[in-house]
Amino acid sequence: MADFTRTSWPGDRIVTAAQQGDEASIAVLVSGAYPHVRRFAFALCATSQDAEDAAQEAMIVLFRKIGTLRAAAALASWMFRIVRNECLRRTRALARLHLQELIPEPAGPAAEDVVLNRLEIERVAAAVAALPADHRRVLIMRDIQGLPGRTVAAALGLSTAAMKSRLHRARATVRAQLLTADGSSLP
């Protein structure tokens, strides 16, 4: 069993052998580095659970990626960087969670509102469909498609004044039909 009271990191010979895939050296390296990594995690992380998790994550990275370490002497700084990043990631996740609790998600429209909006759209569509064809084309091109007045007038072969007159009558007719359908009196 490894001596966890040891204060120094595993030596360069162990690190080099672990980098080359020697399983016994990897086991010695992991057990020798763990107490240092754990102490560092407890100093950085917000909670003891996060510290334990960060230390374990660092050990997993060490086990999986020891072959990518460039220099054996860089082991301590590499491990501390992994732990620091893991603690920061956990702190950010915790902050996002608390922020979500503080700011409630906007409620979506109620089913009743969706149905009422759909009915209103159907009423408007029916009123537009009931217009004479020349008024309907002007209203659709100008108010629904959002085309400029001059473009609508040119597309329909009308003067701008004639287009505006038809648009005014179309809007007034739709408004009157919607008010009549509501049972309201006309203004």
Brief rundown of the structure:
This protein is 74% helix and 0% strand. By secondary structure, the chain is mostly helical. Helix 5 crosses helix 8 and helix 7 packs across helix 8.
Structural class: mainly alpha
Major sheet details: none
Q: What is the number of helical segments per DSSP (H or I, 4+ residues)?
A: 8
Can you tell me the residue ranges where pLDDT is under 50 for at least 5 consecutive residues?
1-6
Output mean pLDDT: 83
Please state the CA-atom Rg, rounded to the nearest Å.
36 Å
Helix content: over 70%
Element pattern in H and E:
HHHHHHHH
The coarse overall form would be rod-shaped
The number of E-state strands comes to 0
Give the CA-CA distance, first to last residue: 93 Å
> Beta-strand level of the residues, as a percent range?
under 5%
Structure description:
The model is unreliable at 1-6 (pLDDT under 50). The protein has 187 residues and is mainly alpha-helical. Helices cover 74% and strands 0% of the residues. The protein is built from eight helices and no strands. The longest helix has 28 residues, at 75-102. It has helices at residues 12-19, 23-44, 48-65, 75-102, 111-129, 133-144, 149-156, 160-182.
